[in-house]
Write a structure and sequence with these properties.
Elements: H1 2-27, H2 32-39, H3 44-54, H4 60-63
Length: about 70
């Protein structure tokens, strides 16, 4: 069980890093509030959903990552 949890944490960390990198590429800069929101996500599924969504949106607000509550 411990090994599986470690693997899952590693997957989440990789997904967070990838999401932040791609957000920076697409939107030039990522506000600190957005970075903190992404870093707080522990669900690999949620991170993967956001990665897929990134392809289709034109703003952080469309992703719910602009620092405002939806």
């Amino acid at each position: 069980k411990g090994r599986a949890e470690g693997i899952e944490k590693g997957r989440a960390e990789e997904a967070r890093e990838t999401l932040l990198e791609l957000l920076g590429e697409k939107f030039d800069s990522v506000p600190e509030t957005t970075t903190q929101r992404v870093l707080a996500i522990s669900s690999v599924e949620e991170l993967r959903r956001l990665l897929r969504q990134l392809v289709h949106v034109n703003s952080l607000a469309e992703m719910g990552l602009d620092g405002t509550e939806k």
